[in-house]
C-alpha cells in the first residue's frame, strides 16, 4: 500500500474536513489507486479540479500513485489560460453552456437573463444531466457533490451559495463570466434566443396598454413569447446592473 502526501488549494478546501484544510496531510492509498480515485475518495469531485501536480509534474486523472508521492491539487483557472500545463482534461470550456440540477431553478433563470445557454427542468435526473453535459459540452451546476463524481461529467461547478442572486455571483466570479454576458438575449422560459420583431407582426399578442405605450419588441424563436421594455424589464435591468457590478 502506498502512502502519499496531499495538498488542496483555494476553494477545494471547502470539500475537506477542517483538520485537512489549507495544509499538507498524508494518506494511505489503495493498491493501484489513481489521482482521480484518491481525490474523490478524499471528498473533492473531479469536475472541481483543473490541475494536478505529482512531485511537481502535471499529470492526468489516470496517473497511478506511488509511495512517497507529493500531490498538489488546484481548482479551475478559467480566468487565464493554463493550456501548456493542462493534463486532467482535453481543454477548458471557453464558451460556457450550462445544465442545472433540480435545486437551481432560480440560478438557471438568472443565467438565461444574462444571456447564457442554460438547460433546466425540475424533472431532470442525474443520468439525464450527465448525458446532456457529455453530448452537448455543458458545465453541470449542482449542489450535489456525488453528481459531479460521475465519470461522464468532465466540467462542473459545485454551487455553495443558497440564494439565486448569490449563486449567480459565485458562478460569474469563478468562471469570469461578467465580461461576456449578453443580457436580455435569451428567453427566461425556454432558453431559446430572442430576436427583434416588428410591432405589426405581434400586435395581436400585446395587451392594450402595451400597444399604446411601447414600440420596441423581441420575440422568442422557440416558444414565441413577446418581450418589451416595461416595468418588469426595468426591475430586471436594475437587478442585473447591481449583480454584474458586484461580479466585476
Please describe what this structure looks like:
The chain has 248 residues and is α/β, with parallel strands linked by helices. Among the domains are: 2-74, Ubiquitin-like (UB roll), CATH 3.10.20.30; 98-180. Helices cover 28% and strands 19% of the residues. It contains eight helices and twelve strands. It has helices at 35-41, 105-113, 126-136, 145-148, 164-175, 199-202, 208-213, 231-247; strands spanning 2-8, 25-29, 51-54, 57-58, 70-74, 98-100, 118-120, 139-142, 156-158, 194-197, 217-220, 226-228. It has a five-stranded mixed β-sheet with strand order 2-1-5-3-4, with helices on one face. A four-stranded parallel β-sheet has the order 7-6-8-9, sandwiched between helices. Strand 8 (139-142), helix 4 and strand 9 form a beta-alpha-beta unit. Helix 2 (105-113) crosses helix 5 and helix 5 crosses helix 8 (231-247). The longest helix has 17 residues, at 231-247. The radius of gyration is 22 Å and the shape is elongated. The model is unreliable at 78-83 (pLDDT under 50).
